[in-house]
Predict the structure.
Amino acid sequence: MNKPESYLASIRTARTELRQLELDIAYDVKAARDAGVPWSAIGDALQVTRQAAQMRYGHTNHWTAADTTAGQTPSIFSDR
């Protein structure tokens, strides 16, 4: 049987990977919007409604690496 520490390490690793994937999606959504892709198509790609995609990724905010480390996923990155 695995030790509890191995489960916790696995959880931490998965959380780090999830944060990176969330950032990748946010960057891709911004690039798609910059290229003129409509929110309805982005929503379809995310398997959510147009409104849900726009609510999550549609507003501009400023961010830092510390925000990401703290587990916050910025919606739109103004400095990249």
Notes: The helical segments are 4-34, 39-46, 50-57, 65-69. The first helix runs from residue 4 to 34. The chain has one domain: 4-69.
